[in-house]
Amino acid sequence: MNDFTRQAAILAASVWRHRWTAVAVAWLVAILGALVVMVVPERREARASIYVDTQTVLRPMMVGLAFQPDIDQQVRMLGRTLISRPNVERLVDNPTIGLEKVDPSQVDSQIETLMKTIKVVQTGGNNLYAISYRDVDGERARRLVEGLVALFMESGVDSKRKDSAEASRFIDEQITAYESKLTEAENRLKEFKLKNMNVAATQTQDFFGRIQSMTDEVNRLKVQLSAAERSRDAIRRDLESEEPQLPMGAASAVSLTPDLDERIRTLKRQLDDMERRFTDNHPDVRTTRRMIGELEQSRRDELARLQAENPKRRAAATNPVYQRLRNNLSDAEASVASLRGQLEAQVARLEEIRSQANQVPQAEAELAQLNRDYEIMRRNYDQLVQRREAASLGVKIDQTSSMADFRLIEPPRILPSPVFPGKLQMAAGVMLLALLAGGAVAYAMTLLNPTFSSERELREFTKRPVLGSLTKIEDPRDRDLQRQDRMKLAGVMGLFLLANVGWMAWISTRTAS
Asked: Hey, is 513 helix, strand or coil?
């Protein structure tokens, strides 16, 4: 630390020898810097803030009903592309902003400069944007920011309407094209079905699947026919072993009019019940007796009719088991005949299909291809129609209620203070630069013309031993001269500082006004 202090003292002493040169350089730099500061104009900044509100009540209500683009992403892209060449050209051509007119050869350079100096920054949130521009003319900067704000708001509405119109036009063109394709596919399918009506059936199974299905059906019918024939044979054997006639005592008990007998028995039971509760003259009793009499007369008439139709009826089969077996045999014979007919028809159909083995697979393959092409076109057509309806509903929503609300949070205004570096900051910098320049010149002169104030300095610099030295005897008049010199230097430096402070105060006053 002592060496550092000693070196600093040596450096200060060396610089002190060239103090007036340093003061002269400091004054010169200060004066030149003041002139530069006076000539260089200050730049003012205009700024505005816009918030884009995309969270509306209508958006969640329309989910699934209408096509809704990502509004947040569109707004972010709009903020990034606001400073584009076409937009800047519109600002340059706008006479109300008052940008400087340049030669046609310098227009590109002016546009490039504006694109670099205009700032659009996303601040405070996803949809909060700050637009700023710096210019020597504050009012011109404010007008340019106003133009940018108007472009930002108009671009959001215009781009969304343009996108909606383009999407609707494209979907309409695609629907028209698919309508013609779908009509052609339907005509091809119709003509193919008419031409190959007997070859390619419109079933879901292919040729080999149909053959397998019909073969299974033939086998099933064969099994059913075999079972029906065995059942018929069993019934026939039982019928042959059963006697058709009952013994005389049992045959008399067989009724030829079972329905009438059953109704008569039912009415007689009801009559017995009513006779226990009512008298013989009761209307219900008399009505029941009359109905019984009529039914008994009807039974006698029926028996007489049956006897007249078949005088040999008594020789007919009277065994109810034999009669039931004979009926069952008739049903079995009918079932066998029906199954045999179905089997013959199915076998004939199977043979017919097998005879078409060379034509059916090719026809079915062509039919499958036509159906596949038709289904693809129809599905695409239906999807396009649905999307057109969703897009149409989205356009109507945009026309009735905006999905994004542009809010001007901070209108375009000029900041009260000039942007850095202002004249006040430049003045302070010039004063500091003047002091540093004076000290640097004094230090450079010590390096060009070095002097030594002690034996130690000379020995350290030359790396040689010092044989001797002379002592300076100070004169009191020299001390007075040194004191006067220091006072002059202090006065000059005080005047320098006072001049710079007054100049900065004057600049500050002008800036505030």
From this structure: coil
